[in-house]
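Example A, followed by Example B.
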Amino acid sequence: MASDAASATAAAPPEPLVRIAYGRGITTLTLDSPYNRNALSARLVAELYAALAAAAASEDTRAVLLTHTGTTFCAGADLTEATAPATSTDTDPATAGPLGLARLLRTLVELPKPVVARVTGHVRAGGLGLLGACDISVAGPGATFAFTEARLGLAPAVISMPLLPRLDARAAARYYLTGERFDAAEAARIGLVTLAADEVDAGLAPVLDGLRKGSPQGLAESKRLVTAELLRVFDRDTDALAARSARLFGSAEAREGMTAFLGRRAPAWQR
């Protein structure tokens, strides 16, 4: 009996990294990968794709709420995967790497349901791309933001597609280049998030109530109007920016930056 129980435990599927809940017209997708700060691992990205597809097909869903467990909304790329040797069992490239991230961001932008982000923790690097791809985002006082790519020998290439059309140009230049951390009020000022709220759920309440009153057609067509320019950017730049990102991730300088970060030491170029 003990061996049977052990076999059953060993065969149990892993806990999901994206949890799905539904209530009053809103499908809530919760990033739940605390061991790596909700980093965009290949598995999390694949699960998010599946959850978004299900929400898009749901007749009862008026909007998607994207949120998180723990103190980090999303830390960006999973650097342990990025620095690991490639193997023949790697995840489907359609959902992995820079091109996989670009496709995920485009999926959020062109989803026929509005996507709202609820942020109560830290957002770094590629996680900021998720915010850029959401239609509305509300951040609380515990939220912090930083474009850390330049400190790792990388650049915010793919995530620029949904972000640069929304961000204040001077602020984008500053934060892209310096990697400085900034708060929710500054994120709202520069266009990264829609609203900085002292109490996130109170800030979200009128937004979600408004979305519940929309018709499926009315919401989908209204979203198409406000995302048209973003989609033109994706059409124009996806291949080039995904290739640039892949080149940077494969460079010696980026490998030094990522391994230094994972090893909690300063990279060779830091002064």
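Example B, a separate protein, is given below in the same form.
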Amino acid sequence: MLYYTGVGQRLCAPVILEPTPDPGELSGARVLIADDVADTGATLEVVRDFCVGRVAEVRCAVLYEKPQSTVACEYVWRRTDRWITFPWSSLPPVTDPEAAVTG
């Protein structure tokens, strides 16, 4: 998934990077979508919408949830309205799926 391109900078809409799951393999699955932060909720919404109707159950878990998130996650460690800087935030966003896999 690609959405944020820098601090406070993002694309118009999230982009799902390859490889995407084969919907046929998800039939009947119980899926937990995990993310570091639900800021706008847009990335969680795209993944959740991809799953709805294809899986038996879908839930979301995040470390941080912000009040403006369009997705209310079932599992949240902390709620905050502050900008979160994670240790991995010092690395540039993944824009090439091959680079993410091969490092």
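On Example B: The domain at 2-102 is CATH 3.40.50.2020 (Rossmann fold).
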